[in-house]
Specification:
Length: 115
């Protein structure tokens, strides 16, 4: 189990729809179904009751939802705390500009960011 699995589970628990969750999380419905089955196998409990028309949480699923929400919250708090301690700004920057600007203005601007 990882953070992505928790996010998939929580989205499905809220939407109760495999198609919507798969679309929102950018995976196929069959991959989502396999991920949920792996979670259920690892815990030894069915987390969702499913039929052709409905998806709903079981009692074990409701307990797991609370665990997943709390774990994700604590994970996000830890990431935020660790990022606050870091003095360096990190990340990815994407710039879009015309060809003229790329040759005339951009090199001078980017020189300011090279360490």
């Amino acid at each position: 189990m990882n953070i992505r699995d928790l996010k998939l589970f929580l989205h499905l628990a809220d939407s109760c729809h495999f198609g919507r969750t798969a679309n929102a999380m950018h995976i196929s419905p069959s991959k989502l179904s396999r991920q949920i089955q792996r979670l259920e196998e690892s815990f030894g409990h069915i987390l969702f009751m499913r039929d052709n028309r409905t998806v709903r949480l079981t009692e074990a699923g409701k307990q797991f939802k609370q665990f997943a929400q709390q774990t994700l919250f604590e994970y996000q708090q830890l990431r935020h705390s660790l990022n606050q301690q870091s003095a360096l700004l990190t990340g990815e920057l994407r710039l879009f500009c015309s060809v003229t600007a790329a040759y005339s203005h951009l090199p001078k601007l980017l020189d300011n960011f090279i360490l």
